[in-house]
Design brief:
Layout (H helix, E strand, L loop, with lengths): L1 H17 L15 H10 L15 H10 L1 H10 L14 H30 L3 H17 L6 H22 L4 H16 L4 H15 L2 H9 L1 H41 L6 H4 L22
Length: 295
């Protein structure tokens, strides 16, 4: 009986694996698509690329680099005025792969330049502009990876994380109105956050269109490969959730700081912050519980 079932099951599995599946309809791209502006901005970048910590770069060097890349930054800002959807090419030859990797590097560099505008504004004593620049850099991280594959989302998170770290640092010394400015910006970003399932669905469709049926059959039936794929997807989803938890921690910090500056004392808990500073206590997506904060 078992052998009979195996004899029937294996051919059925092969039939399912090799049966042609019609491609899913591509999502309608925004018109204009902000992502197209980001790609053009990356292609227009000039000067050397540095991975230095933002604050390790002298102010004069920031002035020079930012002035040389104003055309790229204006293209980014124009792109942010439109809806964005990042979709990689369905082809997977060596030239496309290299172009895609270069494109990701350009997007990260643009995000660093946007955050650099915030740091330069800080150094010039313009705190409101600094907050706006950091929020804009974070928004660019979101929009430049919206709807993309896992690798695109991870680069977007890297950009967001760079700007978020600078914003959290500077909010400790800001006046009340600028802290509120940062709080509102962070809340808007949190509201536009995509769930990891969005990127995983794009990843699945991209794999389906860039591999043949034999490769997919091996992927589905080879235990080691199937385990690696599952673990990669789980780690990716965890990374997205941890990033959202980090942003929500910054939201609580900003709300608590705003309360302190306006009331003259530290809040004792979420009861002091809701609903004036927060609509509700933010939840940690990794635990489902309220974001922990040392009130």
């Amino acid at each position: 009986m078992v052998l009979w079932l195996l004899g029937l099951g294996v051919p059925l599995l092969l039939l399912v694996a090799w049966w042609p599946v019609p491609p899913k309809p591509s999502p309608a791209l925004p018109n204009p698509n902000g992502y197209d502006y980001f790609v053009k901005a990356g292609e227009a970048l000039v000067g050397p690329w540095t991975n230095q910590v933002l604050r390790a770069v002298p102010a004069q060097e920031w002035q020079t680099v930012l002035a040389a890349n104003q055309s790229s930054l204006e293209l980014v800002r124009e792109g942010l005025r439109h809806r964005s959807l990042a979709l990689v090419s369905v082809t997977y030859d060596s030239a496309t792969r290299l172009r895609f990797i270069d494109q990701l590097g350009h997007l990260k560099r643009l995000g660093v330049l946007l955050a650099g505008e915030g740091l330069l504004a800080e150094l010039e004593g313009n705190s409101a502009s600094a907050v706006d620049a950091y929020i804009q850099a974070m928004r660019f991280g979101q929009e430049s990876s919206r709807g993309g594959v896992m690798m695109e989302r991870l680069v977007g998170i890297a950009v967001e994380s760079i700007a978020l770290a600078e914003l959290r640092r500077t909010m400790l010394s800001l006046a009340s109105e600028d802290v509120r400015r940062g709080l509102v910006g962070l809340q808007n970003l949190d509201a536009s956050h995509d769930l990891p399932e969005v990127n995983l669905a794009t990843e699945d469709e991209w794999i389906r269109q860039t591999t043949d049926l034999g490769q997919r059959f091996t992927l589905w039936t080879q235990p080691t490969m199937r385990k690696e794929v599952r673990e990669t997807r789980t780690k990716f989803a965890g990374r997205v959730d941890r990033h959202q938890a980090d942003r929500r921690s910054a939201i609580v910090e900003a709300a608590a700081r705003s309360f302190e500056l306006e009331k003259g004392r530290r809040p004792t808990g979420y009861a002091d912050l809701v609903p004036t500073y927060l609509p509700a206590a933010p939840l940690d997506p990794t635990t489902g519980k309220e974001i922990a904060h040392p009130f």
